[in-house]
Amino acid sequence: MFDFKYYTPTKVLFGKNTESKVAELIREFGGTKVLIHYGGGSVVRSGLLSRVTAALDEAGIAYVTLGGAVPNPRLSLVYEGIELCKKEGVDFLLGVGGGSAIDSAKAIGYGVANDGDVWDFYDYKRVATGCLPLGVILTIAATGSEMSDSSVITKEEGLVKRGYSSDYGRPKFAIMNPELTMTLPDYQTACGCTDIMMHTMERYFTQGGNMEITDALAEGLLRTVMRNAVILRDDPRNYEARAEVMWAGSLSHNGLTGCGNDGGDWMTHKLEHELGGLYDVAHGAGLAAVWGSWARYVYKDCLPRFKQFAVNVMGVSDGPDEAVALAGIEALEDFFRSIKMPTNLRELGVEPTEEELVEMAHKCAVGVGGAKGSAKLLDEEAMLQIYRASV
Ligand code: NZQ
Ligand code: ZN
Q1: Nearest ligand, CA of residue 98?
Q2: Per-residue pLDDT averaged across 119-132, rounded?
Q3: Which of 83, 214, 249, 295 is most deeply buried (CB count within 10 A of its CB)?
Q4: Could you tell me whether strands 62-66 and 33-38 are parallel, antiparallel, or unpaired per DSSP bridges?
Q5: Tens of pLDDT along 66-76?
Q6: In CATH, what is the architecture of 184-390?
Q7: What average pLDDT score do residues 273-297 get?
Q8: Is the pLDDT of residue 208 over 90?
Q9: Would strands 160-165 and 134-138 be described as parallel, antiparallel, or unpaired?
């Protein structure tokens, strides 16, 4: 095992009607003037936003609102939010929605707490020295942003999608009511389950360091998410299944399933981020579309882990290493199909030209500083081959 840091400062309130505690929590963490940041309107339609503003009104906590964070949230709205916070004297951020609203709120928080252009952090030019305190009411189980240190933003100019990670951005609190996810379209529920699995799988397919306890948590989480994703496909209003998936989403990306490893692989995510930037696809679906091609490209270099995954997670019978590993990859693709996730770019609905594949591979390589990956180190040429294989 490798040494590790495990830091999860987020206070979680989980269960029915937990959003009624929002004013109490904001006060506990010192908020006196709040920016409520949300997405394209689902929280307006569900009535959640008006319940939140009513709770703040009743508690006498001042607030302003800013909606419009789109999936693959944009830098221009982040700038708008930073200006608004400075003008209004905002001292606390409340992200209400999914990863996009939360990530956008984190970026606004960095922009308010640090001088200069906030994009510098996403462009790896500078490191943030603070972030405005942030709380979250989650409406989709997917990214784990409610407990993670990450924020992913797309710069419109050049369609560059980049993530920035810092402990300063970890939310102070996360309100998680599984009932709030029941209004999700089935597609988004399935995308979320895929993303959750992938956050643990990125930490699983590595060259060493994986502890037995971490593997047990990771494999249990993956089996739980698969089982409950199928339940939700057939019964979207199943509270218990919503709850299992929602909690798995947080644990999958708060560091727990990576303790002791070498930092993880993360190349499926990096390859997807270019798809999200260029074609604006849903993150989870993009991951499913490239994973199989990535896995087939790297599995021989990481055979023991692929075999363990096949047997312990996908239920493949023991046998020759390579055959078992390949059967595990196929079994996961079958699972993706069973919840209507794509397993290649065509099924994702994009048909890149060769020039676009080259462009994505180049941007991806630049984004990771040349080469990245633990299961197998991938350079620009390898990235291009994986993109080509996923068409
Ligand atoms: O915008 P609204 O109207 O709210 O609609 C959203 C959006 O259309 C809708 N939705 C969310 N909750 C709903 C709902 N519709 C009905 N009922 C509800 N309860 O679902 C759509 C997707 O929302 P979004 O926030 O974009 O989804 P997600 O949570 O999957 O976030 C995706 C973004 O997060 C990034 C992704 O790259 C992508 O940009 N990621 C962030 C990470 C992090 N911060 O740690 C890690 C991830 O790997 C990921 O990269
Ligand atoms: Zn993800």
Answers
A1: 1
A2: 97
A3: 249
A4: parallel
A5: 999 999 999 99
A6: Up-down Bundle (1.20)
A7: 96
A8: no
A9: unpaired
